[in-house]
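Hi there,

I know you've been waiting on this one. I reran it after we fixed the sequence typo, so this is the corrected version. Both the input and the resulting structure follow.
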Amino acid sequence: MENEKTHKKNIPFFKIILGVALLGFIVLVITGKKTWYSEDAPIEILSDMDNQFKAKPQVGSTFFANRAADQTVIPNTVPRDGVAYPLEKPDFERADSVIGANPLQPTDFVLARGQNRFEALCAPCHNNDGKGNGTVVEKGFQNPPSLLDEHAVGLSDAHLFHIISVGQNIMPGYGDKLNMNDRWTVVHYIRSLQAKR
């Protein structure tokens, strides 16, 4: 009985050495002191994933007759779950009569959703405060107009919705990235920023 108790307390020496070596290896790998990366090119059995045909948007293509890799969308194309947008890009003066009023009420949820979408897609240019001094300006892009100035405040909700949908000047449209309700929530959030100015 005594012999069994003393045998259980003894840890084999090779387990201690193996544990210390494994711990040391893990520390060296995590700190970057030990790597097993090679400078040689890897051996590839099937290289078709690296060398596949793919169209890159800003690169020419010999596949299409017009030699452009990024093809324009066929007119009146609508996503499966989408609806056709009723206006063209320059139709700002018809926005009020065609689009109409904002169908959403500015509830806490709507404003929170609008803030979320604004900060994800609009803030890089317009900044979180809407003043037009976002991070892209630091990279050399032109300052977008402030959403808090008198001109932006004077725009109707339908006009703002139209700008968000199709873009204006160098601003791209976000109709393909934001569904209709999300665009209206962004309009409400812009109005809440304007009310705080």
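Quick highlight: The domain at 92-195 is CATH 1.10.760.10 (Cytochrome Bc1 Complex; Chain D, domain 2).

Best,
R. S.
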